[in-house]
Write a structure and sequence with these properties.
Helix content: 55-70%
Bound molecules: zinc ion
Strand content: under 5%
Distance between the termini: 30 Å
Shape: elongated
Number of strands: 0
Structural class: mainly alpha
Number of helices: 2
Length: 90
C-alpha cells in the first residue's frame, strides 16, 4: 500500500486488509474450479493432462487477477465501516 491516496491524500497508514482477500479468493475460486472440474470430468471424461492444462492456468490467472480488485473492495469496506485493528485505550 501507498502511504496516502495520490488523488485526495487520504491517509492509508492504518489500512490493512490482512489475509481477507486471499481467503475470499480461495473460497470463491476453489468453489468455481472444483465445480467446473467435476462437471468436465463427468461430462467428457478427459485424460488427466487435460485437467492439469485447464485448471492450473485458471487458478494462477484467476488468483492474481482477483487479488487486486478484492483487496481494493475490502479496504473500501473497511474505510466505509470505519473498521480498524487498533484497540482504543481510555
Ligand atoms: Zn483518494
Amino acid at each position: 500500500m501507498r502511504q496516502e491516496c495520490p488523488a485526495c491524500g487520504l491517509d492509508y497508514s492504518r489500512v490493512d486488509s490482512g489475509d481477507g482477500p486471499a481467503v475470499l479468493i480461495i473460497l470463491i475460486l476453489g468453489f468455481v474450479v472444483v465445480g467446473l472440474a467435476l462437471w468436465v470430468e463427468v461430462r467428457f471424461e478427459p485424460p488427466m493432462w487435460v485437467h492439469l492444462l485447464l485448471w492450473i492456468p485458471l487458478i494462477i490467472v484467476g488468483s492474481f487477477g482477483m487479488l487486486r480488485p478484492f483487496k481494493a473492495v475490502l479496504i473500501a469496506l473497511q474505510y466505509r465501516h470505519k473498521a480498524s485493528q487498533e484497540i482504543e485505550l481510555d
